[in-house]
Amino acid sequence: MKHRVFSGMRPTGRLHLGHLVGALDNWVRMQDTHECIFGIVDWHALTSEYQDVEKVHRNVVEIAIDWFAAGLDPEKSIVMIQSQVPQHAELHLLFSMIIPVPWLERVPTYKEQQQQLKDKDLSTYGFLGYPLLQAADILVYKADTVPVGEDQVSHIELCREVARRFNNFYGPVFPEPQAELTKAPKLPGTDGRKMSKSYGNEIQLSEDPNSVRQKVLTMVTDPARVRRNDPGNPDLCPVFDLHRVFSDEEAQKWAAEGCRTAGIGCIDCKKRLLEALIPVIEPLHTRRIALEKDIPGLKEILFEGSRKARVLAEQTLDEVRQAMRIKYTR
Ligand code: TRP
Ligand code: SF4
Hints:
Blueprint (H helix, E strand, L loop, with lengths): L3 E6 L7 H14 L4 E6 L1 H8 L3 H18 L7 E4 L5 H12 L2 H5 L2 H9 L8 H4 L1 H10 L5 E4 L4 H18 L7 E4 L27 H9 L20 H9 L2 H12 L5 H27 L2 H29 L7
Parallel strand pairs: 1-2, 2-3, 4-5
Helix pairs in contact: 2-3, 3-13, 4-8, 4-14, 8-9, 10-13, 11-13, 12-13
Bound molecules: tryptophan (TRP) and iron/sulfur cluster.
């Protein structure tokens, strides 16, 4: 039997190149080898954005455009909106009966996020339950494979513990899903720090090629290369990190040698990077423009994906209700 995949993203903003090489490219590939369900997890977004619900609403369509532009294909995968499949919430509620609060308090992202997002009150019940809702997202489809980044490992571990505890109490219903770690090359933003919306240093997937050119040409480089004939060290340069991800061997060799010997200037080096990067961005941009022309059609695809998801999720809930003795028949 084909392995079943679930993964999701929170609709909190537009996606950037880091999401593409860190997750989306991998999802697109998995569509041909796995049975995939991808969720726009708007309830998860609300755990931290509950004071800006309009933003979450808008970003559901935005993220769907980014996904389809990057190559997610509704003919191959189920693409759904979490809040349109209430079975996620029902399963979350039932899990909440059996999961001790300290299991959730111990998840490292809980305190980390509270520390990092000091301007938001994250002392809510829903925020504590974030990883439990995530476990419900995965287990409601009995997915066994969860492609995620390193930062999500503790959540998948919790998900496995939830499945185990449920199965111990009520009999075998759930698989214990595996995280499939995306070998994400770490992608620097234009200022050299990790590419992230919170730093404002990102290259968005929705950006037009000219603006990508602008950003790359003004990107920070190895600070040792002040003048054109100062040699540099590509290992200390964020532009070279992008070469590693997007350029072929030959271009990488050319850039590294030229940098160390001051044989090339940084502008030459960046132009060569753009030769590899623009062909990645350009088709995304073209597809985005087409998708934006038919938002009603795009929403229809999400509704249809959510409908298919409800059918699968309801099968699991039926078993769960039976196992927990809350299924009643006349
Ligand atoms: N927590 C994930 C993130 O921030 C998003 C997410 C929610 C998710 N539910 C999921 C990822 C289920 C994988 C599976 O990236
Ligand atoms: Fe960076 Fe290239 Fe300039 Fe070297 S030549 S510092 S790798 S941009």
